[in-house]
Design a protein that fits this description.
With 487 residues, the protein is α+β, with helices and mostly antiparallel strands. Helix content is 40%, strand content 23%. The strands form five sheets. A seven-stranded antiparallel sheet has the order 6-9-14-15-12-11-10.
Amino acid sequence: MSAIDHALLEGYLVRTRWFGGKGRPFEVSRVRVLAELSAPGRPDVTVYLVSVTYSDDIGGSELYQVPLAAYDEIEDRIGHAYVGAAEKDGRQRHYYDAVHDRDAMALWLEAFIMAESTGTADVGGTASDEGMSGEGLRFRRVPGGEALDPELRPSPMTGEQSNSSVRFDETAMMKIFRKLSAGVNPDIEIHEELTRGGSEYIAELYGWVETTVDGEVLQLAMLQEFLRTATDGFELAMASVRTLLVDLDQEPDASGGDFAGEAARLGEALARVHALLRERFPSGRSSAETTGELARGMTDRLEQALRVVPEIEPHAARLRAVYAALGSLDGLDVQRVHGDLHLGQTLRTSRGWRLVDFEGEPGRPFAERALPDSPWRDVAGMLRSFDYAPGVVEMSLVGTGRVVDDQERALRAERAAEWSERARANFIAGYVAASAAEVTDDTAHEHERRILIEAYVADKAVYEVVYEKRNRPAWIGIPLAALARID
């Protein structure tokens, strides 16, 4: 089994975008080899499982996946992914992050192709000098998935934060999970079920990669349909706001920047996904005890936030009343949900909206993310995103240096607020109209829905206020304005 110096990995981790421990004291405490991959004309690739231990007051440890390609000579074409040099088998070798190496990523493509006929291909198993076994990688395919051409060209995609992605021409995209947790990744689990259920509102799942460590499954990557015509939902929304603000004399519904139709279609897409999730996963009605616990959790987060952001205090009494109303409900409908939905988790394609990234709320264990939850959590997350799009655009206009008088500033704020209100209203209307669970005019159900939306929106905005206070103080006005609107 190949060994690599811990200091070499430590030096590389702090240079990456996906390492979550930057700014914290840490050390690489253990390195294990998951697999060793090679083929004629390809570099030798070792997939490492790197354990990171923190020595600050928070402490704890994390697991990261680091696949490295080894070369005898310097490879200038991937110099930006250079990790360092180390001696192996009596000679010096140069190591590069394999995700950025087209020749290395071709090994993953070839393994997925091997798995097409049987559904699974085991690749790269090895033995350890320390008595540990490298189980190798298991490449799994979803039955009936896209047949892959071995001539597809891999290329890394930019812009990722916590994961890395590689595109195979315009056919497939592989997301490589960098930070790992034992168990089934919700992104794979949900995509598999929605793919098998024939959903047209996601990128089809073609397969995934996993291994076993100490008797537990680690899922390492997923391969899905590449959406050729996709535009990021948040970028599309901001472009709509910018168009609206170019001509302030135009009403939003008469402007080329109106987003109401897109918001309604997005609401319909979410409702269709929720309906299929109810079919494919357990769902039901929770108890009054559950709603009480949910309300107490929101109240606790509010009290903690007040200690960090005193600006919330003028709204605190109303927020407590909103959470109390939630706690008085005799239960709520629960099911599998997205769990971290906002416009940045959507793509607009030529064939309609697609929802992506079903990993759920970062930082929570997989088992917690898999628990049934209210679908109104997803709705609330999107409603908050419709507030952020005009808020971010307005702040970007302030930074242009153009002198704006009070009248224009007020009209611009009014138009932005109208855009947000129309988007929110049409999104909910589209969601309700398409949702199989919302085909009744029952007054009690309508009352429950209003309470749930208000509570989830308030809870999300409280989280945002704390986040902005700590990370982007100039943005804090966006969620504070939302708290001020809550009745």
